[in-house]
Amino acid sequence: MVSGIQGSLCVCVAVLCLYPSQADQSCLDRQQVLIAIRQMQQFLKGQESRFTDGIRIMKARLSALQKSITKPPADQVTATSCPPLEAPKHGKMFGSKYSVDHEVHFFCQPDFQLVGSNSRLCQSNGQWTGQPTECKEISKCASNPCQNGGTCVDTGNQYRCSCPIDWMGNSCQHPVQTAADWSTLSDSSFSRKARCAKIERTQHCSCDAGFHMSGSSENSMCKDVNECEVYQLDGVPSLCVHTCINIPGSYRCSCPPAYKLLSDGRSCEDIDECATSQHNCTRGNTCINTGGAFQCVNPECPKSHGNVSYVKTSPFQCERNPCPMNSRSCHHAPKTISFHYLSLPSNLNTPVTLFRMATAAAPGRPGPDSLRFGIVGGNSRGQFVVQRSDRHTGELILVQPLKGPWVTEVDVDMSEYLDRTFQAKHVSRITLFVSANEF
What we know:
CATH superfamily of the largest domain: Cadherins
Low-confidence stretches: 1-23, 177-186
CATH topology of the largest domain: Immunoglobulin-like
Helix content: 10-25%
Strand content: 35-45%
Strand order of the largest sheet: 23-24-25-31-30-27
Number of helices: 5
Radius of gyration: 35 Å
Organism: Callorhinchus milii
Signal peptide: 1-23
Largest sheet: 6 strands, mixed
Number of domains: 4
Protein name: Fibulin-7
Distance between the termini: 64 Å
Number of strands: 31
Shape: elongated
Oligomer: single chain
CATH class of the largest domain: Mainly Beta
GO cellular component, one term: membrane
Keywords: Calcium, Disulfide bond, EGF-like domain, Extracellular matrix, Glycoprotein, Membrane, Repeat, Secreted, Signal, Sushi, Transmembrane, Transmembrane helix
CATH architecture of the largest domain: Sandwich
């Protein structure tokens, strides 16, 4: 309080000194007056923030006191819960508690589409929010699996592609190879004469490894074995993670651009352009490595609206400016917004935890006694759910595979409560860069 009085006196002296006729020679000069004004403004801003926090804490404590006084005796309290729910057929359910304020989440197996509510909340009246959930089968041809002009035929549990005359494979992905394609008659590296010798009037012929014998015993030829065609799984070459290239007597593997072949000769690893300075991100942007590429990012805070405005406190976080005491909408707006970037392979096996949110109380302040987590944007296809992993941590879980190349965003919020009174909200915006490759 003494410092406040001193600050007030300082301002009064400064004001008097602006009028020389009313002040003596001990008056401050103009620069000193400006410095004094700025110090007083900073002091008032800090006092306002502490006063606002004190009022909020006092309201929460008064609300808790009121509830404790009006709370019925323990022998009259009955635990309110909702009827048990079951996972839909061809789907799964996250969440096993059916008491008030607990949520359950649903997702469907691949090839099935969720109809109804993907999450439901147990209300104080013992009823669940939302609608019953079903998993309806998606036509196998809905994703257009047939390539190169092939026609998809749905056969129930599977699909079949009717391919044009020049294409073959389960998805019409391989060109039909003709004799001219093999070049076995004109290219000596793919077709060569066999090594033959007569032993006791019998001719014995042999070929090098990677070739097979053809023709008659008098005119034997060694033709290359196309390992890429021989060793396939479901119509796809299985010797290489990416592309198999047939060479005379053997094969070799290749990787897509921005990947390197590992020492096993078949696996591919992404090249980190950000770590090796192979990117072209300008100053002020941050390089994010993705599968087979990179992204230059510079997230921006939301634009001011009403009494809500934000300031960027780090390259990946925005904080809300102090709110007026009587602005309910400002206090319920996110207090912090953080930005996160994840790189994923295509068709990642699910379910898998992608991201965790947690909270911790500031020193000297009462921490929240309960948290609520939810998805507030970017989940129109029901590919994500949020569940609590412990008292102070929530997890974002991918429950449906993502097929790349694709970029998508999902917003997760964490709301803090003290004695069932809302305290603050924090939002994490997670951007997923899904690669075109499955490795």
